[in-house]
Amino acid sequence: MIEEEAVVARTEKGGIWVEKPRKSACGGCMQRCASATVDQYLGAPIIRLQVFSQIEVQVGDRVMLGIEEDAIVKGSLWAYLIPLLGLFLGAVLGDVVASALNSPFSSDGLSAFGGVVGLVLSFFLLKFTRVLSRDHLRPVILRKLS
């Protein structure tokens, strides 16, 4: 279980909204690199998430959020692998169609077009099947800290 601390910002019927300042990529170093300088002048952006809870919390409470590691791995697999497969399958299909039809167009052009179409269709597949918005991919409140 991956855990992270957050603050309750709002409570609603459908869930609880929590906020957490985003950590910079090099939050632990003292080298004063560009990332630290940008964070210093622009401020750390705040991440807002809707989470589920069996625990009674109030606005302003500090809570510990948790999400299962395998949920992150599966979500990443869906988010990266499906579009990549759509790109490759679309490109191969475009090349096959160009070869089968003896098209006057370049097979490279139709292959590129097929790849883009496959990529876009895979994004629609992920969007409308809601694979990445399942409840098991959302963090939950594990405990109240204060």
Q: What does it look like?
A:
The chain has 146 residues and is α+β, with helices and mostly antiparallel strands. The protein has 2 domains: 2-67 and 138-144, Beta Barrel (OB fold (Dihydrolipoamide Acetyltransferase, E2P)); 70-135, no CATH class. The chain is 44% helix and 23% strand. The chain has helices at 34-42, 69-100, 107-129; strands at 2-11, 16-21, 46-51, 62-67, 140-144. Strands 3-2-1-4-5 form a 5-stranded antiparallel sheet. Strand 1 (2-11) and strand 2 (16-21) form a beta hairpin. The longest helix has 32 residues, at 69-100. The mean pLDDT is 82.
Keyword list:
146 residues, alpha+beta, OB fold (Dihydrolipoamide Acetyltransferase, E2P), 2 domains, five-stranded antiparallel beta sheet, 3 helices, RseC, transmembrane helix, membrane, transmembrane
